[in-house]
Amino acid sequence: MPAASRTSQSGLARAKNREDQWGSSNMSQPSSSQPIDWEPTPPKPKPKAPKRDNAARMKFIEQALAEAAQKPAPSQPTPLTTSSVPNKRPSTDDITGNNATAKKARVLPPGYAKQSIVASTSPSSRSTPAAQSNTPSSSAPRSKSKLAGVFLSKEQSHILRLVQEGNSLFYTGSAGTGKSVLLREIIKVLRMKFSRNPDSLGITASTGIAACNIGGQTIHSWAGIGLGVESAEELASKIRKNKKSVTRWARTRVLIIDEISMLDGNLFDKLAKIAKMLKKSPEPFGGIQVVITGDFFQLPPVSRTQPKFAFEAELWTESIKHTFNLTKVFRQSDPRFVDMLNEMRFGTLSQRSIDEFKKLSRDLQFNDNIEPTELYPMREGVDSANRARLRALGSLQSYAAMESGTITDPTQREKILSNFMAPKHLELAINAQVMLIKNVDETLVNGSLGRVVGFADPDDYAKGDSAQDASGVVGGGSMNLTAKKGPSTGSRKPYPVVEFGMTNGTKRRVLVLPEVFKFEQPGAQPSTPPAASRTQLPLILAWAMSIHKSQGQTLDRVRVDLKKIFEKGQAYVALSRATSLEGLQVLNFKPGQVMAHPKVIQWSKSLSTIQDDL
């Protein structure tokens, strides 16, 4: 066959030609002058097996099966190194794990003991790493590393298990016992459980800030009750006129309420009654599983008269089947400091603790230019303090947020956006002290404090520049950027380069780019645009912060002036943000300013610990 004709044939046809060419006994072997096919040497013809009739074929199959059944099964699995399976990567370890390479020792978070750690029961999520350049560069910014997995104590794991089993419960604990960490894990597990029916899960909190922190909405907004001043019957009638609210109540199977301490007891009763009416069920909370958390020793409900706490509600005991008090403190590792905070929580300080608190009026010593964050009871004091410090720094860079969303009512959208930690307008300058308000990786987390050391233009960067200042990128981009203190030469706005202090004493500089902060309607599909969103740098000025916004935060250095405290629980919330006595400065301390509500003290005596339930 001519070569041109042979190349146009399929591989199957060419193989058939070779079989005809070399398999027939009446054809001569090809000489060196003949065209040679792609195989280097022609295969030798195999002798043809005699054809079997159907009966012989069946007998052959039966014999083969019988021989296979008589062979004993191997007692040990085949090692990967001797496996006959093709295309397998060789391994020095066998399937049984013998001679396995020793694993790197696990590094546990501060405050955890190895024997008290229980791994989360929820499967871990894996993210596909971003495509990397094939040109190596020592100056390339570090990519965002995956956040460390969540480790739960035995107390936390027990509560998570009860939630997964469908129990309604309330858990509390002093500041730093991991209430927020556990709640985020509960939300993650329940979202996975109801991934096909996201409307089944209601995520709420008593305040807008707390709701934004857990990706939910206020209980008032979720329930569709407005201010909730009417009776339960009137509110139920109001809800029935709103199709979205009716559907939300009908589909909800689990309701989460965070920061329960600021929810009025009368409103809790109304919600429990509304659930029964709308669900048409006499079951507690209409058959909805409720998961509630918070610390009643912290900020109380806003009330012109004596507050009525949620635990005083008529339907509290009926709705909550289990109540637990977390006891393991993770934020503070100094037992002396933990004891002082516990005494403050109950409003009864020993003379030793009083003396210790009075010693804390001294100035804090630091050498990394990160000053203590001052906590104020009112927002006006925060704005005034931050503004004064910023103006003293000179030239400012201003960043206006971009806002959007499906909510068309400007008043409603503005109300939602006002609860975002990210500000509408942000002004920065070199040496401004800032706080990161979004988790990035294990070392850069929500609450990390840093200092602006320069500004970088996204259009003005040098790849492979070993003198590059910015060692990484935070936010919506991934470019190698050069931080600079001079004027921008690029076409886009320069962004801040922030130097953060790490817990091990080192420093890390990153370029901070804008992030999108979103509020999504309950049950919305991932592809649905958010109800409200704000695109802004994930930073806030951090010379000062309100006590209210500091709830849930962990701060290495804190300054508190107790002369400005006016509400029960405020002093405890403020001082318990600190991680150590060495990082806490207390001004104008007087024992009489440490107050706890008598109702909360009496009620707390009925709390059980996890050990009591095991």
Automatic annotation (TrEMBL):
In terms of superkingdom, the source organism counts as Eukaryota
Q: What ranges does the record list as Low complexity composition bias?
A: 24-35, 119-133
Name the EC number(s). 5.6.2.3
The record's section on Pfam families has: PIF1 (PF05970), Pif1_2B_dom (PF21530)
Describe the reaction catalysed, as an equation. Answer: ATP + H2O = ADP + phosphate + H(+)
Which part of the chain engages DNA, per the record? 570-589
Q: Where is the composition biased (Polar residues)?
A: 1-11
Similarity-based family:
Belongs to the helicase family. PIF1 subfamily.
Q: What is this protein called?
A: ATP-dependent DNA helicase PIF1
